[in-house]
Specification:
The structure is a homodimer. By secondary structure, chain A is an alpha+beta fold. Chain A contains 13 helices and ten strands. In chain A, strands 1-2-3-10-4-5-6 form a seven-stranded mixed sheet, with helices on both faces. A three-stranded antiparallel sheet of chain A has the order 8-7-9. Chains A, B: GO terms for molecular function: oxidoreductase activity. Chains A, B: It comes from Meridianimarinicoccus aquatilis.
Chain lengths: 345, 345
């Protein structure tokens, strides 16, 4: 079967909104979820693209997410703005808080957005890019499911805990990184298992804490953090700041809560926004221009800045539309027509 | 020559204050510098202990630091508190700002301390521990000298850019990490050079960007960040947040400023303080008790929490005093008697 014609970004957005509306999400949440999923597909970041729809529908079918939740903003006028997702998906909560976060950061230099009580599947780069567009630097982090052992340990306690950072640039895409603090993504180990190939050394340990290259032993054991004890310390920091500090689940409790049945995790998230204009004011320097000196020098010596592949895919998608496969289009059709009933067993 | 009798922490503090007073530092700066140096020695963290005195004296002798600088606090009532070190050593600037930082963080949940225009040599764990004692989580970071190439690059642009994090614990030492974002410390490569042994693979590249195990080629080339592209991205973030964003030097400018002659770097620093009580209030959970669940589980599976060696050395030093060598005592005597004139050529 030939590939279907490319679909434009706005058209794909409408299709995805339609799927989620059909499955019971209110308009706010359907739109917010579609923003994140279509951005992932647009950037050829397939792990956060249309692939995510089925996972979202499964958590809906399992009754583990509130489809009609309306995120609630709490702002006591401090540096911390909170949004209670009331058990809904994270993206609507982020959209509910992001403008207030940016406003507060510009007003007092630095502010935090706390998202509580959400089903999380968003790409963190989506959040930090939104803040970079407003001229702000930002850090975003959250726990996930406890699949990762601390360095020197043998049993999963840490999530793959992503960390993202965004920095505004003038006239070009922002400096953005977003990575798991595990060596590899769990999905990559799954791919090795399916293809029957060993995983590289250093990715995981088996149940006894012994290093393994067997994907089955790795999935039954524990993944490892990137960067040995340093990455392990950063992952622990993410558990503390985006879990314990907020009074929301850390990765172990998130896993226990859903029973490890492959559904999206329920936890909170933390976003810090910093206003370079406020921080640099006394120096008389232009912080964005200063940053460019470093970023152009990095690119100038042939080292790749993070996210460049995504930005390149985005440019192509905005110009030519997004090329989906027939299978992807068929799945969209089925989900749009039959909603949750279209989920395969 | 037999080792001298152990010296108590307060007595060593007085000796170090005396050295710096003899060399022209005002009382505030001499005390603040001594706090950091004696804490390093006490914790058997020798790289930030008495070893640092000579480096501080050299920068004084070179006229690159203001011995009588009085740090100036700027507080516009926002979330960002600034201290201009006026060209003095960093520790007095930190001490000038830390109480206000903690007060602001407790008041509005989150605050930042910017240190400007300082000669930096402080151990960042010293800063985050001071904030953890006040019940606050914190992050501290600064640039250094551009000795590190970005991942995929060949030429030094990044510093060894340390990152420290502190988290308060109840009834025990805080959770603290503090590490360079380079794979190894520059001093470790120096040690290999002196002993004529190769450095491990992955530490450095030569001038052409080719991986090397030759310490001379490494020192002439570039060190590498920890954790490949992830560590490189974090190091870049530190340049942007603690350099460009503040309008202070990034590591390349810091190196150019002193001419790479081995003197302490001149740059700024950024400390973020977060109040777990504010962040968790709406949850009804105790954030420190929640954090303990993770930290005791990590230690319980035999994985070492960071900083435990330091804390153990500290306990011993507080009980038994600090065991210095005769050479270290002699150097203290010489510096105290002759000040800068005691510097060897």
């Amino acid at each position: 079967m030939p590939d279907p014609a490319p679909i434009s970004v706005p058209d794909l957005h409408q299709r995805v909104v339609s799927v989620f509306s059909r499955c019971g999400l209110n308009a706010q949440s359907a739109n917010a979820v579609a923003h994140v999923i279509v951005a992932g597909e647009r950037d050829n970041c397939k792990s956060h693209g249309l692939y995510r729809i089925e996972g979202c529908l499964r958590v809906l079918a399992a009754g583990k997410v509130m489809p009609d939740a309306v995120p609630e903003l709490h702002d006591a006028g401090k540096a911390v703005i909170e949004v209670d997702a009331h058990g809904g998906f994270a993206p609507a909560a982020f959209e509910t808080g992001v403008d207030r976060l940016a406003e507060r950061a510009k007003e007092i230099g630095l502010a935090a957005l706390v998202i509580r009580n959400c089903l999380h599947f968003s790409a963190l780069w989506h959040d930090v890019e939104a803040l970079a567009e407003k001229g702000l630097a930002s850090l975003s982090m959250c726990p996930s499911y406890a699949f990762v052992a601390p360095a020197g340990g043998s049993t999963p306690l840490l999530g793959t805990n992503p960390l993202a950072f965004g920095w505004p640039r003038s006239g070009t895409n922002p400096y953005v990184f977003d990575f798991a603090t595990s060596v590899a993504a769990r999905g990559e180990i799954e791919l090795h298992r399916r293809s029957g190939t060993p995983i590289p050394e250093g990715w995981a340990v088996d149940r006894d804490g012994t290093p393994t290259t067997d994907p089955d032993a790795a999935l039954a054991g524990a993944m490892l953090p990137f960067g040995a004890h340093k990455g392990s310390a950063i992952s622990t920091m993410i558990e503390l700041l985006a879990g314990a500090m907020l009074g929301e689940f850390m990765s172990l409790e998130a896993l226990e809560f859903t029973g490890g049945n492959g559904l999206l995790p329920h936890h909170g998230a933390l976003v810090l926004a910093l206003d370079p204009a406020t921080f640099s004011a006394r120096s008389g320097r232009d912080p964005v221009a200063e940053g460019e000196k470093l970023l152009t020098a990095i690119a100038g010596q042939g080292a790749r800045l993070p996210s460049q592949r995504r930005f390149k895919a985005r440019d192509a998608a905005m110009k030519n539309g997004i090329q989906l496969t027939s299978a992807e289009m068929d799945q969209l059709d089925r989900f749009e027509k039959d909603g949750l009933a279209a989920l395969s067993e």
